[in-house]
Amino acid sequence: MRDWTRQKTERATRMDAAAPFADGKVVAADNATDMLRRVIKSGDRVCLEGDNQKQADFLASCLAQVDPADIHDLHIVQSGLVLPEHLDLFRLGIAKKLDFSYSGPQSGAIARALDQGKIELGAIHTYIELFARYYVDLTPNVALIAGVCADRDGNLYTGPNTEDTPTIVEATAYKSGVVIAQVNKIVDKVPRVDIPGDQIDFVVEAPRPFYVEPLFTRDPGAVTDSQILMAMIALKGIYAEYRPKRLNHGIGFATAAIELLLPTYGEKLGLRGEVATHWALNPHPTLIPAIESGWVEQIHCFGSEVGMDRYMSARPDVYFTGKDGTLRSNRLMCQNAGLYACDMFIGSTLQIDLAGNSSTVTPDRIAGFGGAPNMGSDAHGRRHVSDAWLKAGREAAGGAGPLVRGRKLVVQMVETFGEGMKPAFVEELDSLALARKLNMELAPVMIFGDDVTHIVTEEGIANLLLCRNADDVEQAIRGVAGYTPVGMARDRAKVEALRQRGVIRRPEDLGVDPMEANRNLLAARSIRDLVTWSDGLYSPPSKFRNW
Amino acid sequence: MIPEEIVRSPSWYESSARNRITGLLDAETFREILGPAERVMSPHLELFDLPPAFDDGVIVGRGQLDGKPVAIIAQEGQFMGGTFAEVSGAKIVGLLRAVTASAGTPDGVSAVLLLLDTGGVRLQEANAGELAVSETVRALLGVRAAGIPVVALVGGRAGAFGGGGIVTACCSHVVISEQGRISVTGPEVIETNKGAEEFDSRDRALVWRITGGRSRVLLGGADSYVKGDVASFRAAAARSRNAAPPFTLETMAAEQDRLEKRLSSYGDCRDTPEIWARAGLADPASVPDIDDDAFLALLSEREIKHDAR
Lengths: 547, 309
Description:
The complex is a heterodimer of chains A (547) and B (309). Chain A has 547 residues and is an alpha/beta fold. Chain A has three domains: 24-210, Glutaconate Coenzyme A-transferase (3-Layer(aba) Sandwich); 214-342 and 515-536, no CATH class; 344-505, Glutaconate Coenzyme A-transferase (3-Layer(aba) Sandwich), CATH 3.40.1080. Chain A contains 20 helices and 22 strands. In chain A, strands 1, 2, 3, 5, 6, 7, 8, 9, 10 and 11 form a ten-stranded mixed sheet that branches. In chain A, strands 15-14-13-16-19-20-21-22 form an eight-stranded mixed sheet, sandwiched between helices. A two-stranded antiparallel ribbon of chain A has the order 4-12. In chain A, helix 5 (107-115) links the parallel strand 6 and strand 7. Chain A is globular. The N and C termini of chain A lie far apart (73 Å). Chain B has a single domain (4-245), classed as 2-enoyl-CoA Hydratase, Chain A, domain 1. In chain B, 40% of the residues lie in helices and 12% in strands. Chain B has a seven-stranded mixed sheet, with helices on both faces. In chain B, helix 5 links the parallel strand 5 (150-154) and strand 6 (173-177). In chain B, helix 3 packs parallel to helix 4 and helix 4 (126-145) packs parallel to helix 5 (163-169). The radius of gyration of chain B is 19 Å and the shape is globular. The A-B interface holds A 263-264, 289, 292-293, 519-520, 523-526, 528-529, 532-533, 536, 542-547 and B 1-3, 5-6, 9-11, 13-14, 178-179, 202-206, 208, 212, 214, 288-289, 291.
């Protein structure tokens, strides 16, 4: 007779072992490591909440203190692997296998650890891909999460940076796992219940508030004339052309420039209310001028952004907020919104090859994917229509047949020469060399060429929807690659023919005057300007101030 | 609606050195000396595989402000950090000496406008740069001794650091905006030598609380505070040309006295809000955050004046 309740029995055993270190659900910070020793077993799948922004950093440092002789071979399943402590787990031999999405600052350390065999890599996922696997074959045994505050029953207020927490907890708590939350404070009553206490086993008041990285603040002071030119090209050649109302922006300076041009150049083009009204977007401070100018109907957020909380609380018609007045973000929901409910993704990349594949991998760094491959992909399951989606689909099909389905606009913006004058256009992506070096079966590609619809550079737009074969695509890309070796190797006649067909559009074809592209066109030219636009509600982190 | 103070353009901080000169002087009056067409460039940068600039990042010449002749020097902070080097230094010193020589002649000027935007000495030409700073100080004091005021205008991205901070302190009058910074040892240098506990250069609010325009004008390191647009700098330059104190032993003694009193009153403070509290400002912590109008009101209501210099 098979035992059908092994997981529940196992859970009960662990909870009993941990009980002496807790007062009800509350665990003192000093007892946290001892409690973890009782709850976690070698070989467990552990989610040590590392999100894109929020980090369960105290629990991470506690876990790094356990003896690898007692606990080893953990399988870490978390979206963001961004703290040094996360890497320590592998270096010390506490953890062995890794499935993740994004690494940011640890991208170099992960590549080295992989090279040295310290990490056994499962896969690099997009966010919702990893979240999906939490419910199929990567369900955590133990989740260590972060919240703003909790009551003694474990009711959790995750606040503006809710991010991944509900998704992690749901998968763990309903599959006999153990959920432990670090909070900044234990309170009598939480402002709102983001996660019901029923799903939380232990809460620990951490000695320091959890760490949050301001990832989405782009200083308008650093936007260049060339990025402004690209933003003008995009507004005239894509926003005005396809009129996408629902969209997501990447985090680069090129899209920040677009946000800052909406109230000025966009207004001049008569686009207010016609484009960019509904967003799946992190709280970009650079969008404040457009919001204040009446461009934006509503925004759903993956996470929050340091300094934006007071502004968002004061704009509940635009942002999703709880009854307590603060933002509620949710990465799973917002990624899903970006996949199915947006007509356009536009973002920057580092490298593009001749088939339009793009990557942010350099030979010694594995930054992961985050959400871009999901945002930047055409959802084949989509069945509702919009004008922008249908227009893109008709262009791809070359006509308007009875069964022509739409396409999501996936736009890559890139300056022909990137940082350190490195050409952005290459014959072969660096990620292929990395994959060969680390014996990866699949080279990390951010967005595959068949999902990309447009490439925007300071030389113009390559519309890949209108390309009919691989040669068209290659010459269209070479045609906007400027003076890079890839651009210099273009076939002049073919590129001219593509321009006649409207596949390549130069600034002059669009009526964009490069001489007009200067910083005076920006609705805000400094972080201080953004504070002024927000009526003093935005309080930027100190590292972005120049006053 | 775009807030009025954002469209009020062009901004000093954003503008290039050439655009600052254009906005500062009467239209069509600027006559450049050793302009870019003459291509007097740094002979050293090529050794470091660094691109030179046709004007070596400094623009010097003569023009008019409100119909009166002035000499003008502008550093381009975006080229090599606006640094003092062999060629750029020689252009500055040469113009200052020419101004002294022409004092009292038909070529005489009413003032020298010094548009500082510099991190100090150019490290690739360190010896020449150090000499340039010393010679600039000597020549600048010569201009003042000839009875011609030298007005420093500080509000660029690079601020006025290193030797640029010393040169600023030697001027007859210092005009600054919120974004302007004046100091000798830069924040990164302090952090490198003394550690982030001593000075965290990435804490930009701290950097501006210590070196920024508001703190400098409240402490007397600058004399006039202006909003950050070019027109405000122009108005202040024209005004302060007539307000400069005479370059006499009495002025120097008064300045020494003022600095000694400042040191004894605030020398033990760790941060500027402590100073503001001790000086009796109502809301010391709010000084960086209030807008320019409120700050100007604060300055005028407290009648903060630093006559010496």
